[in-house]
Amino acid sequence: MKHLIPGGRVSAMLLCASAMLSPAHAAAPAPAAPAPAASSAPAACKGTIYMTFDTGSQSQAQLIADVLNKRHIKATFFLANEKTTRGDYSLDASWAPYWKARVAEGHAFGTHTFDHVYWKKDLANGLIQVKPQFGKDGGKLTSFTDKQFCEELRRVDTRFQELTGHKLDPFWRAPGGYTSPRTLAAGSACGYQHAGWAPAGYSGDELPSDKYPNAMLLKKALANLRSGDIFISHMGIWSRKDAWAPANLDALISGLQDKGFCFATLREHPAYAQKKGQP
Q1: What is the DSSP string of the chain?
Q2: pLDDT > 90: what percent of the chain?
Q3: DSSP codes joined into one string, 71-92
Q4: What is the three-class DSSP state of 172?
């Protein structure tokens, strides 16, 4: 998976090459030191960070839930029906207990398109060329009308309600961060506002571990994140040898809390708070 800076159309992988470590992809071996003990959130917030997680291989799903619970943090999850390391898919009935538990904990949820559909280009005939990663058209170029694109977003909402009895929040995130005026308009027309991430907010969990070790990624995030930033990582990446979350998630949250940051879901983000109503 390749990601773009929110609203941008430049590959994050290219951005990484231009600086020591730009907001794109990277990660690696866990630090030798043991995970820090849980600390309480600061009494007075000096700023707010918005943690978000996209579905992926789901190999880190339970660890992410455990860390968020330990740190008393609410996050935002963007869901697609992706193949998991358990051999099923992330919106199969087998995942209902997991998602129900996250609903009960008070997290927020957005759509990431059902089949993890990558935007390719807006066509002259008014259609949107896309490439789903999964589903009946997985790996194939196909075209959507605006209505079909909207339906792709809503499929996640429908399935999430079947699994949890709970509707999604009114935001979506494009796979890879690839958007266009037409996809943004289609999402908005059916009630979903696109949510990207801050330049400093890319975890780098998709970058090769040997070139971008976890310690490097952690140092970068702690140095560069600022109040109001949206942070993105995944619930497991197939290609990364040294997973980002086991080494970095708890340490990152602890380090940000030590700096006086608090955490919130996108329901509280100024850019999205006015759209709390369900689609």
Answers
A1: ---BSTT--SBHHHHHHHSSS-SSB-B-SPPSSPPPPP-PPPSS-SEEEEEEEE-SS-TTHHHHHHHHHHHT---EEEE---B-TTSSBTTSGGGHHHHHHHHHHT-EEEE--TT-EEEEEE-TTS-EEEEESSSTTTTS-EEE-HHHHHHHHHHHHHHHHHHHS-PPPSEE--GGG---HHHHHHHHHTT-EE----GGGB-BTTS-TTTB-HHHHHHHHHHH--TT-EEEEES--SS-SS-HHHHHHHHHHHHHHHTTEEE--GGGSTTTGGG-S--
A2: 81
A3: HT---EEEE---B-TTSSBTTS
A4: strand
Digit-coded pLDDT (tens) for 245-260: 999 999 999 999 999 9
Q: What backbone torsions phi and psi does residue 123 show, to the nearest 5 degrees?
A: -90, 155
CB within 8 Å of 42: residues ≥ 6 apart: 257, 260, 261, 262
For residue 277, the tally of other CB atoms under 10 A from its CB is 8
Contact status, residue 234 vs residue 79, Cβ threshold 8 Å: no
Find the helix or strand (DSSP H, E) in which 108 lies: strand 108-111
- Supply the pTM of this predicted model: 0.84
The neighbour count for residue 34, using CB atoms within 10 Å, is 6
Q: Does residue 110 contact residue 55 with C-beta atoms inside 8 Å?
A: no
Interatomic CA distance for residues 59 and 49, integer angstroms: 24
